[in-house]
Structure formats: structure tokens, C-alpha cells
Amino acid sequence: MLRLQGFVEGRSPQSVYERYKKDLWENCKALWTIWVPAQLVNFSFVPRHLRIPYGEPCSRTIAPQCQGYTCSPHKCSCLQCLFSGRLCC
Fold it and tell me: Please, are residues 70 and 6 in contact by the beta-carbon 8 Å criterion?
């Protein structure tokens, strides 16, 4: 995902890797804060036929959290912004 985002933004592979290293811990904290508890609830309490409809809003919650750490605040061209039509920065 990050390589594709870097390609779309026109960055070199080295700058993509540097940004990945810089933002890794923040992205992991955002992911663990929302996704792990959400999946714990999902697999513990949500009926099997409702697991996908439950997981989709959770995914929409975590994506901006992780993408927000990798977007440029002045000219945002991350994939989330390109596909959704709104800025996440």
C-alpha cells in the first residue's frame, strides 16, 4: 500500500522507505487502538452473518487514522483522498 501511495505521489522508493520507517510506530499504535478491539468484539459477539457489515465501518474508522500519518499537509495526493474526493489532512 505504501509503495503504491508513494508511486502515485511521485516519490522515490528511498523516500517511501524513509517515511515508512518514520511513521511505522504511529501507524501501528493507530491500528492497534482501533482494529484489535474491534476484531475482538467482532469474533466474540457478532453473529457470523453480520461480521462483514460490522467490519466495514471499523475499516473506515482505521483508514483515516493510518493515512493521516503519511499524508502531506499542504498538497495531499494519497490514495484515500484520490478515491474519496476529500482531504484527510
Answer: no
Instruction: Give the integer Cα–Cα distance in Å for 89 and 70.
Output: 9
**DSSP assignment, residue 89?**
-
Ramachandran quadrant class, 47 (left: phi over 0; alpha: psi -120 to 50; beta: rest): beta
In angstroms, the CA 77 to CA 40 distance is 33
Query: What pTM did the predictor assign?
Result: 0.50
What whole-number distance in Å separates Cα of residue 8 and Cα of residue 71?
12
The residue extents of the domains of the chain are 2-84
| Residue pair 88/71 in contact by the 8 Å Cβ criterion | yes
Give the distance from CA 83 to its chain's centroid: 13
Residue 36's pLDDT is 86
Cα separation of 3 and 39, whole Å? 26
The model's confidence at residue 72, banded by pLDDT at 50, 70 and 90, is very low
